[in-house]
Amino acid sequence: MYLLGYDIGSSSVKASLVDAQSGLCVASDFFPKQEMEIIAVKSGWAEQNPEQWWENLKLATESVLKQSNIDASDIKAIGISYQMHGLVVVDKNQKVLRPAIIWCDSRAVPYGEKAFETLGKEYCLSHLLNSPGNFTASKLAWIKANEPEVFEKIDKIMLPGDYIAMKLTGNSCTTISGLSEGIFWDFKNETISKELMEYYGFDQSLIASIVPTFGLQGEMNAEAAATLGLKIGTPVTYRAGDQPNNALSLNVLNPGEIASTAGTSGVVYGINGHVNYDPLSRVDTFAHVNHDKANTRLGVLLCINGTGILNSWIKRNIASADTSYTDMNNLASQVKIGADGVSIIPFGNGAERILQNREISASVHGINYNIHDKRHLMRAAQEGIVFSFKYGMEIMESIGIDIHTIKAGHANMFLSPLFRNTLSGITQATIELYDTDGSVGAAKGAGIGAGIYKNAEEAFASLKKIEVIEPEIKNISAYQGAYNLWKKRLEESMK
Q1: What backbone torsions phi and psi does residue 251 show, to the nearest 5 degrees?
Q2: Which residue of 188, 225, 263, 355 has the lowest C-beta tally within 10 Å?
Q3: In the beta sheet, which residues pair with residue 266?
């Protein structure tokens, strides 16, 4: 008995096949092998053709079936993880009307800002828990204003995961978690926001029917089954955005638990057990995968754009050509905590939400030509990334998230002992590293939704913990001193 999970990213589409009994991944692959094209017709725009996702999903499915050599009838459920905040629009024949406007497209910012001002800060934050910002609803407002001929043909709006589920089953449906990430969901009234819909001039019929995050969302139709080599009737029983799904993959479901990633950008995703929000809207709050009326579970999302991209910039421009990331870690570790007074502000990859959407650029502070060299810059870069996490986590703590444990996959920046020790030291949290990924998490989510697993604890019983990092008590004062200096320099940079 097997479970199939898909992860629909903006770079690639990954499929993983999981043995339901052992919980182990038996086959996995992703396509394309080079990053998928992002169409940028104008500065700040980012679009993808949804059919491109489907074509790469077909290739990934074919590969895992060939690797595993299993009978497709043994696949008992399918789960979907997807890039958040995108907008796919289809007509009454389920035909895509235009390329998807994806998460990193910024054209809708003025529409969201105007909505925030008109609907009012108090309403938006207390009901929607976020500013409409650059999220899905605001992207749809852009289409309505700039492409009225397209808008008039729209039958249903979808997130990327909704589109893939539709292609698999023929059903147009969405989830409360998905609606909340699009900023359509009213948390006070537990329904689609009437005020937002009326403000933007959206008819309720544009919203697909709502299904549970875990549970039957449709069954594989004949066309999709023939295309993918799967069995007609295979149920789709789970879908979630990539960050909530990453948290599920790490079994992060309860208040105070934290999931983190640190690739090109960095994310800290914490679970709040009560409805709350940041009054300055510096972090995002969405319904987590296990949120319901009886059990408040909100995912508070902190995103740092300038994370691994800073470390890779240091590698390309400061290190020698043959220097590896491991070499960089070793060189940086030769310098004491605080990099002898050098601080790097890492915000050089666009506007940062935690800085109230300011774009302050990256900067280096405190260089002394007589004592500092590339080792100091390497250490200051990693510390700067960690300190940006800490700065954002202070916001999360201010709205009621008590951080004790940070769970992460054993990948990207979390491969660096310096990065891990600095993060644990400055937050005084235990870091747990696991062997998992989003497509495996989606497969196990499908197992929960299909009733194959009775709960998440059973689904993730096989989750392999690779390493545990405890705070270095003797170094807490040194980390705090370095952070205080970094924070002072950041605040001076924002004046």
Answers
A1: 60, 40
A2: 188
A3: 262, 304
